[in-house]
Amino acid sequence: MKARTMARIQRAETPHTEWCARDHRCGVDVHRSAELIADGPVGGRAVITRVRAAEVDYAEIRIRVPLSRTEDTARRQLGTALHLCRELLAAVAAIRPAALRGRTDQRPAIGQRAA
Questions:
Q1: Model confidence pTM above 0.90
Q2: Contacts of 39 (CB under 8 A, 6+ apart)
Q3: Which of 21, 75, 76, 102 is the most exposed place for a label (fewest CB within 10 A)?
């Protein structure tokens, strides 16, 4: 009797997209764009990467926020960050392709002034 020591894993290769980095960031079944970086005024940083995995595109967001050395203040800062992340998720989820149909000449929030 022959014993198998390793299972064979086969993944369907996905083609590169027009926006992916086409380098070491892409895997066999995952494609990643170049990172977009926004630095904050007091040492914070946000990094966003567009990712396609299993025919689904999503945004991968990493943020680094400097916290206060005072425990109470740091906890309030963490709570505020979590609250704003929830608001961000809700705002992005609210944008649906049907809502943007017919607006090819305008892009939301680009060139618009806040009221």
A1: no
A2: 45
A3: 102
Residue 98 and residue 40: Cα distance in Å, rounded?
34
Return the sign of the alpha-carbon dihedral for residues 75, 81, 83, 85: negative
Contacts of 85 (CB under 8 A, 6+ apart): none
Contact 33, 49 (CB under 8 A): yes
Sequence spans of domains, the chain: 14-64, 68-95
Neighbours of 52 (CB within 10 A): 20
Identify how many contiguous H helices and E strands the chain contains and give both numbers: 2, 4
**Going by C-beta distance under 8 Å and a sequence separation of 6 or more, which residues neighbour residue 30?**
14, 51, 52, 53
